[in-house]
Specification:
The chain is an all-alpha fold. The chain is 79% helix and 0% strand. The protein contains 14 helices and no strands. α1 packs parallel to α9 and α3 runs antiparallel to α4. The longest helix is centred in the last third of the chain and has 34 residues.
């Protein structure tokens, strides 16, 4: 089936890059990922090295950033089905930009505090899940169904490259401008993302909610749909378990590297950049690996390898050699995550396509919780 806006030539294999709206979508999302990687690198540095945060304060900062996605993912997906996905994405971008812009302003006035960073993390997390829910739901309407697997792979690879660039750019901006002003790079990225999203011209047909159907009713239908499909149910349970484990690790990741292992802000950014390169490699390799070994065995192998990548963290000590070792295992860990995540998205979209269009709304609300 051809895209609604960019039909491919008859009889030829449809080209992913001929879809103008897909290119705009990809550019905006890549800019957003680049900026988010700047923040992911800069905010821990700001908290640990500039504001001298304690272990408990760093844990709270991370927790508050992760709480909104956990609480709002289902609602955000259902809202994306009822309303304009592009408007929801743009709103999320602008709210995130405003929240982050308050940090360098407060720093310039010498009023920046950990409390403000926690509020910004919570606001950015809520705005981000609204944006991501709409972005996940919008993509299948921009490209041919036959291109979904390839588009997932390209998106995963490009986003991981963008994350690599963002981590290294964050390190460079921190060295040049200081951590607070380095966040202006992320503010700019959100504005670029909003502009690109506004230029997408694909028609949308939001499903109007019936007067007697509340949002929680549709979410409940989506949960029942997922529970009734063994593939979506398994993916949801696996992803929830993995995400919970990684959330515990990420709570103290930056504190451990920056304080216990005495990494500089530049080294921290480079290590994160190596991890993002691994995610790019995994995402690009996912289609061929899934075709050769099957999606199930490939994802099981990725899940089995991931815990082994944590072993060097238990043995590490300060020094350049261990910095390289940690970068290498982070590359491997995120390569596994990139391969598994790309395959998960393709499976969930493929399963949703099999259902009637009117049933997709609740499914979208649950599907965004997968990632």
């Amino acid at each position: 089936m051809a895209s609604s806006t960019d039909p491919s030539s008859a009889g030829a294999r449809p080209s992913l890059w001929r879809h103008r709206n897909f290119r705009r979508y990809l550019t905006g999302q890549a800019a957003s990922v680049t900026g988010s990687s700047i923040s992911s690198m800069v905010i821990p540095v700001l908290a640990v090295l500039e504001l001298d945060a304690t272990t408990a304060e760093v844990a709270w900062l991370t927790f508050l950033g992760q709480l909104p996605p956990a609480l709002l993912a289902l609602h955000a997906g259902a809202l994306a089905d009822r309303h304009s996905k592009r408007k929801q994405m743009i709103t999320g971008d602008l709210v995130s930009a405003a929240a982050l812009a308050s940090v360098p302003v407060a720093a310039a006035l010498d009023r920046l505090s950990l409390t403000q960073l926690m509020v910004v993390a919570a606001v950015q997390g809520a705005a981000g899940v609204l944006h991501d829910a709409a972005a996940i739901s919008l993509l299948p309407s921009l490209v041919d169904r036959s291109l979904l697997q390839r588009s997932n792979s390209r998106i995963g690879g490009l986003f991981a490259v963008a994350a690599t660039a963002g981590s290294n750019l964050g390190a460079a901006l921190t060295a040049l401008l200081g951590p607070a002003r380095a966040l202006l790079g992320d503010v700019l990225s959100y504005l670029v993302s909003a502009w690109c999203t506004a230029r997408i011209q694909a028609p949308e047909s939001p499903r109007p909610a019936a007067e007697d159907r509340r949002l929680h009713t549709e979410i409940g239908e989506g949960l029942r749909y997922v529970n009734g499909d063994h593939r979506l149910r398994t993916l949801t349970l696996v992803n929830a378990t993995t995400s919970a484990a990684l959330a515990l690790l990420n709570t103290l990741w930056a504190l451990y590297l920056l304080r216990s292992l005495a990494m500089s802000a530049t080294a921290f950014g480079v290590v994160l950049g190596l991890g993002a390169l691994g995610a790019a490699a995994g995402a690009l390799a996912a289609p061929s690996l899934a075709a050769r070994y099957g999606p199930g065995p490939m994802m099981l192998t990725a899940l089995a390898i991931t815990p082994l990548t944590q072993i060097p963290l238990l043995l590490a000590s300060p020094g350049l050699a261990w910095q390289f070792a940690i970068g290498a295992v982070l590359f491997l860990q995120l390569a596994c995550a990139g391969a598994a995540g790309t395959t998960q998205r393709t499976i969930s979209w493929g399963t949703s396509v099999l259902s009637h269009h009117s049933s997709l709304g609740p499914v979208k609300g649950v599907r965004v919780a997968l990632y």
